[in-house]
Every structure is written in C-alpha cells, then in structure tokens.
Amino acid sequence: MRIATYNVNGINARLPRLLEWLDETRPDVACLQELKAEGEKFPLKALEDAGYGVAWHGQKGFNGVAVLARGAEPVERQRGLAGDPEDVQSRYIEVEVAGIVIASLYLPNGNPQPGPKFDYKLAWMARLAERARALLAEEKPVVLAGDYNVIPADIDTFSVRAMQDDALMQPESRAAFRGLLFQGWTDAIRACHPEPEKLYTFWDYQAGAWARDAGFRIDHLLLSPQAADRLIHADVDKAVRGREKASDHAPTWVELR
C-alpha cells in the first residue's frame, strides 16, 4: 500500500500536474496540503473521475488539507486539532482507509520569528503531539503525513547558514519534532535513507533553487510502531518538481505491506 504526501501549493493551479502524477504513480492514498480552495472551488469531480474518493477540509485562499483514496471512500475520523477553539485554520484531517489511520497535516510555517506566527506554530505542534499520543494509544497502524515545515537536522537543508534564522530550523521547532519521534514514531524517509544521504522535498521558486538543488526536507511521513512494522520503502518523486508549473514541493511516499 503506497501512501503519499504532496503539498500542491494551490490545487486548482496545479491540477494538471496533480492528475498527471496520480495517473503515473497510482498511490493508494494521497495526502494533499495547501489546497487554497473551499466549496465549489475544490475540484472534487476531477479527483473522483481520476478514481479517488476524497475527504477534504478547505479554506478560501489559504491552507487546506485532503486525503484521496484510490477506489475507496476514506472514512473521516477528525478534522482540526483539539486545544484551541479559536483556531479556524484548515490544517488537519484524519481518516481511516483499509484499516490504516492516516492524517494529512499542514503545520504552520512560523515566519517571521520570533513573533505571534512562531508562537502559533509551537502551540500547534504541542496540540499535534497530544493527538499523536492519543493515536499511539489506539495501537493501530497510523501514518501522520504532511508538510511539517520543520527541517529536522542540518543534513536536511542545502545550507545551514542560509536557513539559520528561519522558523523551520529553530531549536524549538526541531525539539518539537524530536518530541514526536520520542513518542515512538518512525520517520519513514530517514529510516529508508539514513544519514549522511541527502534527500530534499522542497525547492523554492526563487534564486534558481531547483537548478542548484538548493532544497530542504520538510515533508514527512511518521509511522506508528504498527505501521513501521510494515515498512517496505519510502522515497521522493523528485522529478515531479521539475515539470512545468509544478508545485515547489515534490510528492513524498511510503510503501507498507
């Protein structure tokens, strides 16, 4: 079973690339982020015509997450995270597909830091940690997939100096991500591509980042112990990033028995 995560950076703007990738790779589940669409603006019919059942949580012009299941209807379990009733941003949706619990998440960027946006990022990560702990207690195969907006280690960026002041690489952001791993989650990409191998999932549109391979790894798939026991492989569909009018992220995936 192949489960992918893909920040599409505007689902309508990237719909041809998304449909192309779905047709070429046929993931069983695709978790999408940064939809930037709600209501009638969400291309539900096009995704259904491609053979996917859809659960989605949209927001006009910003954020938005979805889970696509090939030939099946994902059973929604939860949307949004508990702990902040005033948080209306569409950043988390959790479903079940074929006995596996899957969440698509879009963690806040947090820039500029320090400031309220960075405070929101850390608070959101704390709420995610609470949900992650509850999911582990269910003792089911679970995959937390998405754009975490965290560069976990120095090897996960093209330049530590260039990113040293960015919210994605602050000690607090990294510590919160490590806290998730310490709960018992497995970073699927790093499990299959141990250091010192470099593997990026994002390349900015500016400064020739793609041509220079000046990227970093911020799209992650975290596996519960029951999912990690089924791990076959994980990788990045890097070539998709180089196509015309592509997202600035590349699809990242894990394959489970």
From TrEMBL:
Gene name tied to this protein: xth
Protein's name in the database: Exodeoxyribonuclease III
PROSITE patterns attached to this UniProt entry: AP_NUCLEASE_F1_4 (PS51435)
Cofactor(s) named in the record: Mg(2+)
Top-tier EC class: hydrolase
Family affiliation: Belongs to the DNA repair enzymes AP/ExoA family.
InterPro entries: AP_endonuc_1, Endo/exonu/phosph_ase_sf, Endo/exonuclease/phosphatase, ExoIII-like
Protein's organism: Sphingomonas abietis
Entry annotated with the keyword Magnesium: yes
GO molecular function, one term: double-stranded DNA 3'-5' DNA exonuclease activity
Sorted UniProt keywords: Hydrolase, Magnesium, Metal-binding
Organism placement in taxonomy: Bacteria, Pseudomonadati, Pseudomonadota, Alphaproteobacteria, Sphingomonadales
The UniProt record lists the keyword Hydrolase: yes
The enzyme's E.C. designation: 3.1.11.2
Domain (Endonuclease/exonuclease/phosphatase) ranges: 4-249
Domain of life from the UniProt record: Bacteria
